[in-house]
Every structure is written in C-alpha cells, then in structure tokens.
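Troubleshooting: if your tokenizer reports a length mismatch, compare your output against this known-good record of 277 residues.
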Amino acid sequence: MRSTPGRAARKPYTDDDYPPPPGERAVHFTDTTEAVRAWVHGWALSRGAGEPRSTPWGFTVITGPPANSTNHVLPAADETTVRELTGSHTLPGAWLKAFVPADSLASWIAPGWSLPGAPGFLMSTALEPAGAPAPLPHGYRLRTWTGAGVTHARVHAPDGSCAARGQIAVDGTTAVVDKVETHAAHRRLGLGRGVMAALTAAASERGAAVGLLASSAEGRALYEATGWMVAAPLANARRGPDPVGRHSVSTAAAPAVHRQRGPRGAGTDEPVRTLPA
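Known-good structure output:
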C-alpha cells in the first residue's frame, strides 16, 4: 500500500488516535496477534537471539550481545496479565513490549517498572520488487551483505566513515527491518531512504512479501511517506530505574505516564532507530 499523494500533514499521534481510521490501518495480517507473532520471530533473528520462547503471555526473547537482555513480548496485553507479569518478574533491566497505548501500559505496570522511552508503533507494508535505486549524494557509497539470515546495509561517507546503516531479517515470507539510523552529521541527505530501499529490495528478492518494523512517533510519518502503515501501538516498559534514574513507578495505583524522549535517528527525510536493547 502506498500513501495518497497530497495528503495533509498529520498532527502528532496520541493514544487517543488508536485505532487509526480504516483507510490508514495495515491490512497485511488478520489481527495484531498475528502481526506481533511474525514481528517477534524476525526481530529475534535480527538481534542474534534464540527462537522466541512461547509463554502464557506471549513470548520471551533473550537477545544476543552486547545487551543480552530479557524481553517479554505481549501480543494481547491486558491489565491482569501485565500486573501479574511485572509483579512476579523482577530481574533488573528486563523489558516488556506491549502492543497497547502507552497510557494504558503505564497504569498497569507494578512498582519498580517504568516507561523509559516515548511510545512507538508496529508498522507493516507490502514488499514489492525493487525499481532503480535512487542515487546517493556525491561521494557516498552503499554496501550490502547477508549473513545468518540478516541483510545489512551501510552507507559510507566520502571520508570512509559510516553515515547510515540498517538491517533486515527474513523469516519465511515476512521481513523485519531493524536498527536503521543515520548519523547526525549526515542527516537530511536521503541516506535513510537509501538504506530502507536497499533492505526491502533484498528481502523481496529473498521471497519476503510483507515487511514489519517498530517505529518511534517521529519516524511514523517518515515511514508512512514510503507506504508503511500502522498495525498497532507499541509501548516499552523496563524493570528498574530508567537510564537516567528517573520516572520509576512507585505505586501500583494508576500513575501518570512518564516518558523520556528516545534517541532520534534522522532528520526530516530519514527513518529513525526506535527500539531499545
């Protein structure tokens, strides 16, 4: 699916905007659970993790180095499940990924958990055979390679340094885009779009028909401009103090939503890196 030319600029997305209007919903999966199941397997492959372990709440993924973090993924989170899970799992540094509005997750988590980043979105698109790639700015060079089921793309600046990068993991007919970022000195040059085009083209050549990614609020509009659509909201909670030691939840009563801005990975025309760990 592709965005409609001339669509008016979107206002910032809030929890009240979910679900999106019918014309703006991803229809590549029958429901959120199916989309999350496809995403978590590709994400685990991209992060060098083992096979996602099925659990009563969904999945648990132990990512590879350097983070080696525990991630509980809840395709269909509800208050009872989240309270039980966060109340019984107290390993510092563990993450919980729930596909619900951040305000809801913030009111459900147990003491000791917090929402350390801005809310995001699970997005999907239909992958199509690649056309002619758009040229990069003079002096920039794109390199791609594939290993262990993951295709990597890297744009080198004229001085040889890494200007932009990303990766995509193919699992069956689904491909999961991950770790897309453009370094600050090279933003607003279209490098992120070049990386995305290279990754999705490689995945299509390997037989993938649908792409999935986790996006920040800033990245949502940028991805939508190239045909991606929102499948579900995404909120992340972390056990223990957040990275700067603020905003931990100290009561089980419904707290206010505590958020910090996540790292921005792009300028006005670039996708952004969105997921922790």
